[in-house]
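User: Fold this; tokens only.

Assistant: Input:
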Amino acid sequence: MRYQNVKAFQKHLGSAAPHHLCRVYLIAVPDDFERRCLLDELVSLLLVPDQPLLRLSAVDSTLSEIFTAIDSPSLFAPEPIALVDEMEKLSKKNGQGFLDLLARPQLTGYLILGSRGKTVLYQAVEKCGAILDLCEEKPWEKEKRLAEQLFERARQAGKRLAPNVPQLLFDRVDKDSALLAQEIDKLICFTGDRSTIEQADVLQISAASRTHTLWQTAEEIVWEGGDLQVIDSSSLYGLLPAFRSQFQLGLKISSLLESQIPISEMSARLPKIWPKVLDKRTSQAARLGSSYFRKGLDLLFRIESLSRLGATDISVLLDFFRVSIHVRR
């Protein structure tokens, strides 16, 4: 079984626990905090007093402990649970060992696996167990899910979250699940006996609003001809990867347009871009043309090459960037 929705996966757990849970689970979630919370939730459904629990990483050299525990269950203790995280780092040799384990007709104990992405065990687990896979979750799907989690976390504390609070938190701490959980817990405590958490509460105690992130700066300069004076010597190297990402995106979109790929197919070819943003970028890319984005990538390459060749004066590289990008316009 494979789930690509946390709610559906949790519904499965609720209906299957405690006696009908699968013997093998894989939690494939890129965010470390979210993955560990889900792994702990799963363990809590299985764990009883005196039950053996092994927690390991796939990079450990002691994976033989898992096989020993599963192969030698105690007659006087509940079945063992083996939790192994970072399965994306599994070596080829250990991968084959796990595949052999999963191929057994009946598994003793429970095997809970965590991964930042898909692993060589993916298909094997799907056949004999259950998978929660958020690796291909779209940005807007993640935003909706995180907002729902914020509402639910507040509800469990007896609070109602004003509709505009999740978006304000996203603007201030981004879509980082660990920081969002921390902020909502602070707000729950701050509001005391009040039943509603309002926007004013967020503005009063939440993290200071982000001004201009490097990513936003790069977007404005590359796509909209933003003010280059916002770049200073200390931020240039931090901006280079953000610039490169925007130029690469622009080149891909403009190349698709020049190849006369229908607009309706753009979303399928660029699935991680929000549809409204893609519409805007498509219009901008058509105006700027692929040559603009190619020159932008060439400029970044030249700046990095100069820095490696000993051009340590950041202000000179910055002036070179400013002049060159204006010439392109």
